[in-house]
Write a structure and sequence with these properties.
Layout lengths: L6 E9 L5 E9 L9 E5 L11 H10 L3 E5 L16 H4 L4 H16 L4 E2 L2 E2 L5 E6 L1 H12 L3 E7 L11 H10 L1 E5 L6 E5 H9 L1 H4 L1 H4 L7 E6 L8 H9 L5 E6 L19 H18 L1
Parallel strand pairs: 3-4, 3-7, 7-8, 8-11, 11-12
Antiparallel strand pairs: 1-2, 2-4, 5-6, 9-10
Helix pairs in contact: 3-4
Length: 292
Amino acid sequence: MVKPKNITKTTGAIESTEGLPIRYDVYVPDDTTPADLPTILFLHGFKGFKDWGTFPSVCRHLSSSGFTVVAMNFSLNGVGENPLKFDRLDLFARGTLSQDLDDVGTMIAAIDDEKITASGRPLNAKRMGILGHSRGGQTAVAAAAEYPELECLVAWSAVADYNARWSDEMIHDWETEGVTEIKNGRTGQIMPMKKVVYNDARRNAKRVIALNRVQELELPVLFVHSKDDNAVSHKNAEQLYKACPSDKKELLLLENTGHTFGGSHPFEDEELPVPLQKALNTSADWLASHLK
């Protein structure tokens, strides 16, 4: 993989529809004008955040390929003032798919209104794509159907149908206690999830569930998944690919890697894992071919 160019990162926050901060980073190559480059929104997944593991390096490498990359934290992802800790479990507990989708719309509008800039310089709101991982990949699919400003989609390890993932134990907890608990395997934290999350996904399934929204897509779509993904089976990508009516769609299944394509948190290596490099290079080529 080519070493990233010098990239300038601008950090900021805008208000969600609830008045909560949506924190973001904008990555732009130093020798370019942001408005001349396509803009890519980058979405993290469940129990994730924009500064997780390899994500900052991914954004820098992607930006080096000729893009302005805007990485965002969902307003209810549970990460507050400290960018590396889940210190707002009260927000995480009610993090709905509907609010995630609304947050993407808020970001798009803010880019268009020049409320989000790169060191004061406006971004390109006329050529925009989106790349999401896991739950962020599922939301990216829904966003691509929801917001016509998005012209190209890349979904990494995306969940096809969240309503098929709720376990009997989780549903029992919600029905009897109003809340279920999830352990964060990395931190050991016990993370509560309230029934509102479950209710929202069921009641608003036509709007927020990827497998439903993918059937509306005519824009270019790339699905990337690992055959060895133990968190979200590659069958999710196959379902989404099959249901997508676009005549510009591709499915890349990677061998011998996992849910994050070899990435981990924290990540301190100089080189990205080889599977992640392949996912990133293929994605950059896909976005470039359809946005430039």
